[in-house]
Amino acid sequence: MAKRLSEAGNVRARWGSSAGFVWTAAGSAVGLGTIWKFPGKAYEGGGGLFCLVYLAVAVLLGVGLLLGEFAVGRAAQKNAAAAFRSLGRECAGRSWAFAGHLGLLSSLAVLLYYVEVGGWVLAYVLGYLTEPGAILGDPGGAFARLVGGPGDFPWLGAVWSPLAFTLATVLILRGGLNSGVERFNRLVMPGLLLVMAVLALAVQALPGAGAGAAFLLRADWRGFDFDLVLSALGQCFFSLSLGMSVMVTYGSFLPPRGSLPGNAWAVCLVDTLVAFLSGLIVVPAVFATPGAAMGKGGSFAFTALSGVFARMPGGLYVGLLFYLLLLAAALTSSVSLLETLVTFCAEEWGWRRARSLWGLGGFLFLAGMGYTLSYGGFWPGPLAAGLEWLADRLLIPLAALAACLFVGWVWGPERALGEICRGSRFPGKRLWVWLIRWFAPAAILLILGFGFFA
Ligand code: TRP
Known about the structure:
By secondary structure, the chain is an all-alpha fold. The chain is built from 18 helices and 2 strands. Strands 1-2 form a two-stranded antiparallel ribbon. A hairpin with a 5-residue loop joins strand 1 (3-5) and strand 2. Helix 3 crosses helix 12 and helix 8 crosses helix 15 (315-349). The longest helix has 38 residues, at 383-420. It is globular, with a radius of gyration of 21 Å. Residues 28-29, 31-34, 110, 238-239, 241, 244, 246, 333, 336-337 line the site of tryptophan. Tryptophan (TRP) binds next to helix 1, helix 2, helix 11 and helix 15.
């Protein structure tokens, strides 16, 4: 394992290879949001038009901001809070640790519901394997039983499956950065891409699917409006895991040489490919099913989509593969979130890895339960919706804003570009500087403003 001493004297791990880093960062980016939000958003946004706008946003903003976060991490070689603190002190005499803290807080908030929802996906995979009739026969009822309701404590949805999912995340991290996190991602991510491509092809064979694919591939510019751009911007941020200290942390395990722009492009490419493939699976499948309607997010994926699989020839296998893909995507993302928090606890508080893992894992399991209990209605009150709102609408955009203002104005384009160009050529310098100083903060402010008041 590649290790070396950091200034603090603790041992820091390093990625085994550039490909390992790209697959692992892509594993963080490709998550539930990529797979189950993108098709619905693309559908609402007019299909092909949304795809085009999303592509533009991902290429410009996505790659640019990823690059900024990787650069901060690699330059500092520290956990996210320490990275913003030390670079800030070095060049402006002021700690910007709060930018890292905001990101870490968002990671914690997102993890709280990721372990729950990841657990539900696991329960679906097992359900498809052991008693498919129960889900396929009545998808709405099956989901309602999973998350419980008033007077009906959901043992499976709130206790057993999140426990198994949290345990799986912890055990992957137990293996360490290289033999745990990196190896898991290198194994899972290429497989995920392959299975998605196969599924996307197979779905096109359904009668009526062609109209769905055509809808996604044909752009009608008359549908272009501000809401569409806003929706694409928000999706891109969330899907690429920006602003959450995760990409800073992953960047901090990079050796000083190697192409940052190449890596950022590759991560964005994998994430966008998965999003489009998911669109090409979900939208045609819904179009091919009489009476089915598009939607997005968890309730759509757990109920409406299972209804589609129930009526599709071979739907049992398509459904099983689909939930397996979701499970893989959720695990690689939760792994990145927990690694970010564990690295922070180790370097800032001196906790041993095992202690952080079991401590955080236990906390997530106990506190996360509240999400499921409130989602299903066992606990009245908007805890679940509130947590999502806090993470998606407030914490993530705020953290992204802080990170991008830091790179553009505090650390400054000169130092940032110095880091980015170490080990590679970067032809887009002037455009990137303009993006990170003006365009990205403006875009994030829009997301923040509209998300907050919507
Ligand atoms: N990108 C993930 C998805 O598409 C969600 C997410 C946002 C995330 N920020 C993250 C995952 C940080 C891991 C780490 O679902």
